[in-house]
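Severity: low
Component: inverse-folding endpoint
Summary: output formatting inconsistent between runs
Steps to reproduce: submit the following structure tokens with default settings.
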């Protein structure tokens, strides 16, 4: 028995020695070719735990002549050590980012750098999981990196948990255009308070929520929310006017047909988890958010503020629904050319960026620029974005759409 134990100890020692030697070979070479990769890895927890280069990249690459043998990590590479976090990630919205990108019709018309590589969208949406076929296509197009998902937040090769916990980790993707979450958060009272903590103006023990405080409670990597990215849900609640307004927006998104029946695109959205299908799904996420807010605020205050934010969404939806209805009526009456690929005589909000008329451009800006800022400002407690960047501009766009409609009708007569 002692001999067996001794043999096992010798074999284990040899394996560890071999791993250390192999790692040192990698370090010696890469210290010259990519020194910052080495310094990041040496400062990482992986290095201190003995996780060397081959654990993620394999041992097929031994010289400058065989770099093609380097394995590029995927999320499955991380799974053996981070099983629970990977499971959580796979049940959340970040996992669906690649699917969501492909579901958008305009994504396929963007600038393409190589086969299957949608250059203008992929840099953020690459956090989503891809099939083996898609990964191979990306590699063929020369985009071999960014398929691991985890490294979108835990950046290479430090893979720092501390870095990923900071709100700035979310900034690169959640910033500007129809994603102004960083601008809204960082200029809100919550964001300012946290930035003051980072600058040591406020003490460390002061409460100040980050993106992760609300959207990744207790470090949960699921990352989901009640209203989702577009602040829409299937109309199944008490306010009939609001339900009608949301239905109009869902028709504009191509999720319902003009008669209010489910359209084929709805199945794609269900797969990508881009909206809450049932009131119960929505309420579950809303309850989670109330729990996060309740850490700092009384539950009565929390409920009142969330209801006020949802009242803003209601106002925005009423404006949006009227604008969609105007363009739909112009299509139906033949006063505005309906794009030939539109199945129904109804504006397709996903294709509007590519349509030529001014009234369609105005509708596009209302939805992607101003409505986004309105509801995101409301849900992130930033009144400046709600009023001046959001609702005010929505009302202005609606006024311009009404004027354009009037002029088109006059011209037709």
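Observed output (run 2 of 3):
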């Amino acid at each position: 028995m002692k001999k067996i134990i001794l043999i096992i100890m010798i074999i284990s020692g040899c394996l560890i020695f071999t791993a250390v030697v192999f790692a040192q070979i990698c370090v010696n070479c890469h210290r010259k070719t990519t020194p910052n990769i080495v310094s990041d890895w040496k400062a990482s927890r992986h290095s201190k735990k003995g996780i060397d280069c081959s654990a993620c990249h394999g041992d097929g690459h031994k010289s400058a002549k065989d770099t093609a043998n380097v394995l590029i990590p995927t999320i499955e590479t991380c799974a053996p050590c981070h099983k629970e976090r990977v499971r959580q990630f796979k049940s959340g919205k970040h996992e669906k980012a690649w699917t969501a990108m492909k579901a958008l019709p305009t994504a396929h018309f963007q600038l393409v750098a190589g086969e299957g590589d949608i250059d203008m969208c992929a840099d953020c949406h690459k956090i989503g999981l891809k099939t083996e076929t898609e990964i191979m296509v990306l590699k063929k197009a020369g985009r071999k990196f960014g398929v691991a998902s985890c490294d979108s937040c835990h950046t290479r090769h430090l893979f720092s948990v501390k870095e990923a916990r900071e709100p700035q980790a979310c900034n690169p993707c959640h910033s500007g255009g129809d994603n102004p979450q960083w601008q809204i958060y960082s200029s809100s009272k919550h964001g300012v308070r946290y930035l003051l903590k980072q600058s040591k103006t406020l003490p460390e023990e002061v409460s100040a929520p980050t993106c992760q405080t609300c959207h990744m409670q207790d470090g949960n990597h699921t990352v989901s929310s009640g209203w989702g990215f577009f602040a829409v849900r299937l109309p199944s609640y008490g306010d009939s006017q609001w339900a009608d307004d949301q239905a109009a927006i869902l028709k504009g998104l191509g999720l319902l047909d003009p008669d209010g029946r489910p359209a084929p695109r709805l199945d794609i959205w269900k797969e990508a988890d881009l909206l809450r299908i049932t009131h119960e799904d929505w309420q579950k996420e809303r309850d989670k958010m109330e729990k996060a807010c309740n850490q700092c605020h009384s539950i009565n205050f929390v409920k009142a503020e969330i209801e006020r934010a949802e009242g803003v969404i209601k106002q925005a939806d009423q404006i949006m629904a009227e604008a969609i209805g105007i363009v739909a009526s112009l299509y139906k009456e033949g006063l505005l050319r309906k794009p030939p690929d539109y199945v129904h005589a109804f504006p397709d909000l996903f294709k509007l960026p590519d349509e030529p008329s001014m009234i369609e451009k105005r509708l596009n800006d209302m939805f992607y620029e101003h409505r986004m800022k309105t509801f995101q400002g409301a849900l992130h407690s930033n009144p400046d974005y709600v009023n001046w960047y959001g609702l005010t501009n929505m009302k202005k766009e609606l006024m311009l759409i009404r004027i354009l409609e009037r002029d088109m009708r006059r011209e037709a007569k």
